[in-house]
Amino acid sequence: MTLHSPVPAEAAPDGPLTSVAIREFDPGSATPIRTIRVPVKVFTLASALVPRRVRDELAKEGFDLEGILQAAREIRSPVTLVEVEEHQKGRKIVVSLE
Q1: Which of 4, 46, 57, 68 allows an S-S link to 84, with CB 3.0 to 4.6 Å?
Q2: What is the pLDDT of residues 67-76, one digit of tens each?
Q3: How many other CB atoms are there within 10 angstroms of residue 47's CB atom?
Q4: What whole-number distance in Å separates Cα of residue 65 and Cα of residue 44?
Q5: How far is CA 20 from CA 73, 75, 87, 98, in A?
Q6: How many CA atoms lie within 13 A of 97 on its CB side?
Q7: Which residues does residue 91 pair with via DSSP β-bridges, in sequence order?
Q8: Over the stretch 46-97, which tens digit does the pLDDT of each residue have?
């Protein structure tokens, strides 16, 4: 059973999306162990700051950073783009637009 909430309750529906959030969760935890938040406006430049491990996991799931940027231009409501579960390590990474 998943306890986390990938898109935080404080994200305003149908408002301007201002950031890409990457959260890592321990199994069964509702609180992320780390969050990387990148403003959409600087995402292209800041994408180099996303850890290689997160980039690799996203690529395995068919998502690249450019694809996330394109989604940020088109989507108008907070949404989870991808959830990556590392079953052997017991971690989950959630990428969302907020």
Answers
A1: 57
A2: 777 777 777 7
A3: 16
A4: 8
A5: 11, 12, 24, 6
A6: 24
A7: 86
A8: 677 778 887 787 788 767 777 777 777 777 788 887 888 888 888 888 988 8
Q: Which residue ranges make up each domain of the chain?
A: 21-97
Q: How many residues does the chain have?
A: 98
Amino acid at 8: P
Exposure string of 62-93, with b = 16+ CB inside 10 Å and e = fewer, is ebebeebeebbeeeeebeebbbbbeeeeebbb
Question: What is the CA angle 94-27-77, rounded to 5?
Answer: 25
Global pTM reads: 0.61
Residue type present at position 80: T
Distance CA 14, CA 21 (A): 17
Contact 67, 75 (CB under 8 A): no
